Amino acid sequence: MDPQRNKALVRRFVEEYQSGADEQAFDELMHPEFVDHSLPPGLAAGPRGVRQQFDQLRATFDGLHAEILEQVAEDDLVVTRKVLRGAHRGEFMGIAPTGRQVELLVIDIVRLRDDRIAEHWNVVDLLGVLMALGANPGQVAAMA
Question: pTM (2 decimals)?
Answer without folding.
Answer: 0.91
